[in-house]
User: What shape does this take?
Amino acid sequence: METSVGLEQTKKRNRRWYVGILLAELAVIGAVIAIFSTIESRLVAGRVAGTVFTVLGIAIVVGSWRLRLFRSGTFVVGVVHLFGISLPLVISRLMQSDVEFELVRVLGLPGPVFHRLSTTVYFCLLLGTLLDLARELMPTRFRLSHMGSDEANHRRQK
Assistant: This one.
């Protein structure tokens, strides 16, 4: 069982992590807009943007793994973002670089349809990170995840 000091240190560390990831997720949106507005070739812009999205996904998955945040929305959606969206899109685009994006197939879906799916997943990633951050900002005594824990039971008995 974690002590209250250890629990507070963990919450502080997690808050910093989620704020950093949220800022990175927002920065990636700005970067991708800048990439597509400054690079004329949509193919090259797509490759650069795909690399940025993939690096973000790797950072989320590896960082969450190291912090043991396996049950966080950020980690779960980050895994989907990396392995279900970013890598398949980048690999499919590289393998079909001579084909117009509208004709590219990614995991059996047409490129534009898959891109809309990727936008939805990215929105879920932002939302998951916001919810994780909100959970870490919430006082421990009000968190539902601790309602059955020994610490919560101990507090109720006092």
